[in-house]
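Our collaborator T.R. sent over the components below with a one-line note: 'Predict the complex.' Nothing else. No constraints on interfaces, no templates requested, no preferences about which chain binds where. So this is a plain run: every listed entity goes in together, and whatever single assembly comes back becomes the starting point for the next discussion.
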Amino acid sequence: MNHTDIFEIGGKRLGSRLFTGTGKYGNDALIAPVCESSGSEVITVALRRVDLDGKVDNVMRHIPPHMTLLPNTSGARNADEAVRIARLARAMGCGDWIKIEVISDNRYLLPDGYETAKATQILARDGFVVLPYMNPDLYVARSLADAGAAAIMPLGAPIGTNRGLRTEEMIRILIEEMELPIIVDAGIGTPSQACQAMEMGAAACLVNTAIATAADPVLMGRAFGRAVAAGREAWLAGPGAVATLAQASSPLTGFLDQTEGAS
Amino acid sequence: MSFLPEALRLSQTPLQLHFEAVSGNDVRRIVGQEHVDAAGFLALLSPAAAPHLEAMGRRAHALTLRNFGRTISLFTPLYVSNHCANHCRYCGFAAPNTIPRSQLSLDEVRAEGQAIASTGLKHLLLLTGEAPRKAGVEYLEACVRVLRPLFPSISLEVYPMETADYARLVQAGVDGLTVFQETYDPVLYAQLHPAGPKRDYTFRLNTPQRGAEAGMRVVNIGALLGLTDWRQEIYATGLHAAWLQKRYPGVDVAVSLPRMRPHAGAFQPACVVSDRELVQAMTALRIFLPRLSITISTREAPDFRDNILPLGVTRMSAGVSTAVGGHAKPAETGQFEISDSRSVAEMKESLRKRGYQTIFKDWEPMEGSA
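Returned assembly:
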């Protein structure tokens, strides 16, 4: 591993560029072993599922103490609700990190960029480390950066679809244009797709469904951890230029050499 | 804007001719499609699809896993009043039935709520008959205020109200609305509801959208299976759900699949929906609407409920009493007999054995917390 490759968000240095989640597991007892096998250090949890008084059900019990908690605002339909949920999360002791999800479309679960930017501005001023989930749109990304986001989390494909990097070209533009870390969130279905995102220069990937719904989530967690690390190393290594055409034996500009040689 | 024109058009369109045109090949092709339209949904409900139930089940399972994971949300009904002015011919609580009638005091509501909360449940479904002069909006609002500290999510299954009344109850802390059309066939509907306010087919049909407009987060619809041809009813239910999803994209639309059970009245089902048919109905709904929440109640037997887990179910009731005040004291006559009498703890253990996580809390109420 490249020891100069520092990944820092909100003043916190992270050893893994894979973020994981807590949803969709057949058994929450799998969460801790997945954290271990994947090497992930950041885990997102929907505040709507958190029940600190829960007699029989408390997802927080399953999250290892070394993990950085990234509560999310799942269920928020506008900026106001996202802000309320974020403040509740902080009041409940979930820390200052918040992943903003503002979704008012239950069919496709696509985020509302305008409301997300509004919530980002309010919460960043409140001292939160804000990681907004968004549709990869350069203008929205710029307004999120202006609003004080700590990173930008574009979707690779709609949440939970496991369809891969369908928005690859748009994410590539964000990586090229934005100074903030780009964390690909949602849609990544296989380790190879996570690796591809990292090779493109993404700062990190958040993967939940593909791990939680795998037949063996612990093994799949490990596979994702390795794929993300491999993709990062490939990006750092600087892959050789990819030729789109074979080297022609009679180059179109070859005549220049001949005319120069003749003169 | 209303689903009424579509419902009326459907009721005048016999599906038989459409069904006859469906081939096994059509079904195989539709099961493999990424997006299934209304015509595809109809084909999946056809008799021609019956031999392809395994393929439909596999597709439904994959879609459910992707969208909901291996999780089941649990809730329980709390009956607070069984006074009712309606004459629904199939219902144990109907006005002509001579059963003990009662309505819980707020202290009794609190005791019931505490008994339910002690099992770990966090999602509650509050039920009454239709007697607004006894169990009116004020009473329901008072019940919700008593129950809110115990339950982050409270849904109503009461009688159709105006949007303003729903908005008031949302303000008090209600976040979900359950209302079954019972049957989408207006002629049969009139026969089955000979008297009482429920006679109004249109007002009931438009209830889910009034709830959505009032700010309900979850709207749960359904037809009572057994009153008439289930294929026709499920087709209408699916189109109604799709209509609601499209117009109210922020609302979590859910469908229940209640099969008729024996009850205190003499009415018996006009058609019996078999297990295979219920599975066909559920998998067709899942393939047509991958994000749809699907609720299965304790009307169904434990084995059957366990077996259909992977095929599309997302919510289940548990620890159920269908009698008023049945949680804190011995039950009297319920609205219908239940088949699955497992406790919440037993249900959780049973889900765990099948590889499913029980979700108790899946909502954080936000009123007044900013």
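Summary for T.R.: Chain A touches chain B at residues 23-28, 47-51, 54-57, 75, 77, 80-81, 83-85, 87-88, 104-107, 109, 160-162, 209, 212-213 (CB under 8 Å).
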